[in-house]
Amino acid sequence: MQEILEHVFIERSYPGVTLGAINWPHGLVLIDAPFRAEDCRAWRSSLLNLGGGVDRLLVNLDAHVDRTLGVRAMECTVAGHERMAEVFRNRPVTFKTQGAETGAEWEEYNGLGSIRWSPPEITFNTSLQIHWNESPLVLEHHPGPASGAIWAVLPGQSLAFIGDAVVFSQPPFLAAADLPAWITTLELLDSPTYQNYLLVNGRNGLVTQKHVHQMLDFLKEAQAMLKQLSDSRASAADTVALVPVLLKFFEIPADRANQYTSRLKWGLAQCFTRNFRSSGEQIEE
Fold first, then answer.
1. For position 157, which CATH number holds?
2. What is the number of domains present in the chain?
3. Beta carbons of 171 and 19 less than 8 angstroms apart
4. What is the pLDDT of residues 122-152, one digit of tens each?
5. Which of 14, 77, 251, 264 is deepest in the core (most CB within 10 A)?
């Protein structure tokens, strides 16, 4: 566990997503959860060493399986965007780990079994302030990467947990993306407002403005290439030809090449169907 600011911690040792913890006298605010039961137990044990108040609130930055699969095992109140709650209503009550090849982290691990979802009990539309300290934590809706994608922002400390808005050394998840909204979100992140912010993403940890620019370039290129395919009346299957070109935006470890190729292949096909076709198969958020 790394303390990045006073009373603010991140944890990157568990597979899946970067975890956050804000330790206030009133209690702990947690950002996302590990997806394996044993990691949830270990994370909860680590949090006991922080002390602080007795209350617990877990914030999910979106509904992606990697960050929501282990939420029930964290045994605390959950907050998220109202569209995230809609995603859970459209999912089967029990998650069965089988079948998909979306390039998600959970797919790399066996023995997860059947798991019941834990939808958010506290939801909001535009923003929500949590007053557990003198300076509030603000949950803000920033669309683009997924339905109900949010940031958890500490304005008083110039810190923002931005989820999957920016990633590096790996391609983003595009299946549930709204590319124009995502580009607008990143342009905001590139504005003077956030130049001095400490940014934490949901996959790698700390983010620089260089990473923001690289993600903007990738999304603009992906959007242009998908539109060109659409204009030529191509099908979703034709998006596979874009994968080698777009993978070049990232310095990918050799042992992750197959996983990240699958992620981009799946994501581009789903994104094309969602954004450039008026009808198509139902797509998992």
1. 3.60.15.10
2. 1
3. no
4. 999 999 999 998 899 999 999 999 989 999 9
5. 264
